């Protein structure tokens, strides 16, 4: 039975922010081999990175289109591609690989327009391809425990959600003009900076753990002299009638990557912090507060099995990504071997989740641009 597959990487040069993390995460379970890539827009960097990653020179491509066509034509071509380039490139690159019959894993936000996302989803369905989108944080083991506990009714009916994703990387740029980073350029980032870059992580995370969809949103943005939003406050109404607040910011002093989610139910509450990702705070209404640890013996077998390192040894971002890739790669291997993936195998964010992210960005920007009116998702 074939237990290994091959993949290619778009972006992911050694100096990129996230692409290299994908490679490390895929490598974690050693079931997929990097054999092809178009790692950088810079030709010299592309070649040097291919060499560094040990990819045969004839499979280091100067252009993603050439890569999709040539890999599709090879008998030993790649089984999937991971797209880790800036936002504005995602649609064209994903489309090209799907058209060539290659499974796609794409970074978020998936693309710019709802109809682009719908086109990609349709294409993947028609060609029976896996189409995943890497919203990182639900890959953490304890986040899956959080989801399980909410499903089991441990906090009762969800009545309020409060979440924040805070960074301070742009605090020194309040009132400054836009710099050269692509995230500040609407042509490359899209209609939003912060709603798209970190707000979408909140949107998917809350939907993943609670199963609730945002019904409508009321947002206010601060641009502080920039073309796009860098500080966003949001009021939400969910499809079960519950309300919530999200705050996404790049100007929150002292916060490096402060992603916190609090879910309140009528029987208790759950709280998770990205910077201590192995722990979950559980407040049952009729008992003392509990701190639940990843991998602990008191967890269900399903939850305990998600743990990758011994308890007390912190896991991190690479493993959160690796957990998504474990499921994606298992799904691909099973499909290749004619087996049916299980629901557990299929537990990774998909193109449909990417589409919901685009709807979220569009609604949030529309609300903020129209004087903070309520906008239906
Ligand atoms: N899931 C997460 O937690 C997470 C974290 C950070 C970034 N991201 C997403 O990842 C994407 C990339 O962000 P980043 O911060 O790594 O950007 P980056 O600018 O650090 O790196 C992008 C890389 O892509 C390369 N590139 C650009 N266009 C290319 C093309 N046409 N062909 C080949 N290579 C190309 C660049 O040369 C660069 O090496 C964005 O969509 C961002 O939203 C996701």
From TrEMBL:
<dbReference type="InterPro" id="IPR000683">
    <property type="entry name" value="Gfo/Idh/MocA-like_OxRdtase_N"/>
</dbReference>
<dbReference type="InterPro" id="IPR004104">
    <property type="entry name" value="Gfo/Idh/MocA-like_OxRdtase_C"/>
</dbReference>
<feature type="domain" description="Gfo/Idh/MocA-like oxidoreductase C-terminal">
    <location>
        <begin position="147"/>
        <end position="377"/>
    </location>
</feature>
<dbReference type="InterPro" id="IPR036291">
    <property type="entry name" value="NAD(P)-bd_dom_sf"/>
</dbReference>
<feature type="domain" description="Gfo/Idh/MocA-like oxidoreductase N-terminal">
    <location>
        <begin position="5"/>
        <end position="135"/>
    </location>
</feature>
<dbReference type="Pfam" id="PF01408">
    <property type="entry name" value="GFO_IDH_MocA"/>
</dbReference>
<protein>
    <submittedName>
        <fullName>Gfo/Idh/MocA family oxidoreductase</fullName>
    </submittedName>
</protein>
<dbReference type="GO" id="GO:0000166">
    <property type="term" value="F:nucleotide binding"/>
</dbReference>
<comment type="similarity">
    <text>Belongs to the Gfo/Idh/MocA family.</text>
</comment>
<dbReference type="InterPro" id="IPR051317">
    <property type="entry name" value="Gfo/Idh/MocA_oxidoreduct"/>
</dbReference>
<dbReference type="Pfam" id="PF02894">
    <property type="entry name" value="GFO_IDH_MocA_C"/>
</dbReference>
